[in-house]
Amino acid sequence: MKKYISIILLCMSFVSFGQSPGDTKKVTITGTIIEASTGAVLEYATVAFTDMQGKIVTGGITDLEGKYAIKVPAGMYKVTFEFIGFETKTLENQNLNKDTTLPTVKLAEDSQALDEIVIRAETTEVQVRLDKKIYNIGKDLTTSGANVGDALANVPSVTVDIDGAIALRGNENVRILINGKPSAIAGFGSTDALRALPADAIDRVEVITSPSARYDAEGTAGILNIILRKEKTLGLNGSIQTNIGYPNSSGINGNINLRTEKFNIFNTTGWGYRESPGKAIFKNQYLSENIINPLVIETRDGDRIGRNFNTNLGIEYFLSDKTSLTASAFFSSGNDDDETVNLANEFNSSNELAISRNRTEYEFEDDKNYQFALNYITKFDDNGHELKADFQYENRNSDNTSQIDELNTFPNLDILPSEFITSDNTQKEYLAQIDYVRPIGENAQFEAGYRGNFSETSTDYELTEQLTSGGNFIRNDSLSNIFNYKENVNAVYTQYGNKFGKFSFLAGLRLEHTQLKGKVNAENVETIEDDALHIDFDKSYTGLFPTLNFTYELNDRENITLGYNRRINRPRGRWINPFPSRSSEANIFQGNTNLDPAFSSAFDLGYLKRWSKLTLTTSIYYQHETDAFERIQEDTGNETPNGIPIIRMLPINLSTNKRIGFEAGILYNPAPWLRLNGSFNFFQFNTEGEFNGVDYSAKNTSYFARGSAKVSLPYQIDWQTNAFYRGPSNDAQSENEGILSVDLALSKDIFNDNATLGLNVSDVFNSRKRKTLTTTNTFISESEFQRRPRSINLSFTYRFNQQKKARQQNNQNNDDNGEDF
């Protein structure tokens, strides 16, 4: 019965927004509701005002901080406070004739309703806001013992390909934020840096497909905002997790939190070891009659060993009830050892083996990342009037060394000269940000802010090679270089939102000025000569980025949303470094310093419907992008010392890209022991453009779908199955086959629910392989790549002073760059 009363009151809180003010004097009643045993705030708790005749006059719910502010006609009331799974509390005979702040209410758990809490928690796996969807990673059993990169692969609308590149709705230009702010921890469009963080460090992931003006304009696909854990529970609490797996992997991660009335100290620390054997096959058929050996087949075996350590330590100090200062420091250290063996077989025009060559690359990487952050927040009142200020400094150092040994094994054994490469990368980044939020009246809100992001990256690349086998290593001045890159972005924004009955809107405008500088220091630069490469560059541009989001509530369980935003895609990193990779003589990747930024305009129409056991979300979206990036492959006209044509992959601006898509997601809980969810995303994009006289226009239609089933078995055992399928796709030159993968997981609570044993199998059928066919006028290339085979992981988690209840209020934090209007 209690849950039905809560639903009725929740509905009343929304309906009250649309009511016209009457003649009766109204007063504002404020207060806070917390959990009695821990002091944790209770979000979405209900507050009801009953008059002396026993009629419920109005009601409302608490916000993310457990606070409420409700307008009621002046009079005498009984005030009732409820939250599902907790005992009801009432305040009798309250004479409310003026604005009043009621005493803080502490609700105690109702032991008879604990089972109901768990069921409710399992259904709250997604929250829908005006411009984003929020997913709680902690409920996914398959992420036990995994890292953040693995966890993102299970978020609806998100895909992570074989190379680790992240895409949102099939578009790889996605901006990744940590706690609402840019961070080198996240990188850009890749999970490489994120692999150092355990999945257990995530509280939730926000998928922002129609970002408001508050967020960076970077990322034409949208934004993924990763919110890390920071407990709000009073006292000392924490957890520790260990795991072991095959292929060989192991790790230990712990988090601890100490919270008092004046401060909150939190720490997450983890260490991990992981082996990732991978395989690849490349088959290049050259069409020119002048090539002696027109068929080259390369088989690549890679053994990658990764070791990482990370720790995040912070303290939040409450200067007053409304003001706090948070200081945090993050450190991560990674040490990777990789060995890649590339066996190349060349066949003559009669399909006879002519040459067999073995190329082995040993690569060692030492990576260290430091980040320091300060956050200040003051709340002028309890209605959302606040000021936030942030400062962040980051320093990342990555030292890479690799040695390439090569020998011919057929028709004669011949040891070839070796190469030794060192690459020292340093990145420094500063961020300064200030945000001001001012509610206007009952339903309106104004925001304004500034963000400055300043980064500098230096890559010191040196290639030494033997002129003859066994000889001394001599520096290659043609390719050795120092590449310095600076990116400075200054932005200001303002936005305004309001609510009229069932209609809400949020309109904003962001101004960003960007400066990009690149400079190469080298003694003798010899690159592949063409118009695409300018070694030094200095570019700046200013852009306006409007955003507009609408919501119309058909009823309290159904709404329609419409969003528009303009975004930018800036070239960076590997995409603009003009010096080619050296992992293969015949297949190289080369950056393009002549890349210009791409701009996009996007529209998103969404629909949400909730039933008692089912939630449906759908979206139709359209995006028009100019100067869109595309990776093309071409014959450079150069050959290896052994006469093999060199094929390079080069990113370029390809005129326009029009993208249209549809996505749908379902959360269904047909029974207390069964929870189902699934999503489907269909998209089509049309690329138009040419480069070096070659037309690369293409139309690509593809889709991906994922489903998950979680079953509660007897003896407190949970079983989860995840399935993902990515349909076939194509781009300007290549066709990609579909990919199917299935993950399984089991977990059991032990030690009075204070500990959990978990077992998961990733890629059960060992089918997560990318197969690609590329066709041009001069060659045909086929490839198959698998980054990591089927893996098995066993984990053990122990919690102290924590109850295994997934209520939202214990996991929320306010470091997500502000809540939405």
Descriptive keywords:
five-stranded mixed sheet, 821 residues, 3 helices, elongated, 22-stranded antiparallel β-barrel, 2 domains, disordered C terminus, disordered N terminus, Maltoporin, Chain A, 47 strands
Could you say what the CATH architecture of the largest domain is?
Beta Barrel
* Unreliable runs: 1-23, 111-124, 527-532, 803-821
Shape: elongated
Write down the overall mean pLDDT: 81
The percent range for strand residues is over 45%
Sketch the major β-sheet: 22 strands, antiparallel, barrel
Count of alpha/pi helices: 3
**CATH fold type of the largest domain:** Maltoporin, Chain A
- Fourth-level CATH superfamily of the largest domain: TonB-dependent receptor, beta-barrel domain
- Could you tell me how far the N terminus lies from the C terminus, measured between alpha carbons in angstroms? 32 Å
What is the CATH C level class of the largest domain, in words? Mainly Beta
Please state the structural category.
Answer: mainly beta
Radius of gyration: 29 Å
Total beta strand runs:
47
Number of domains: 2
Helix coverage percent of residues? under 10%
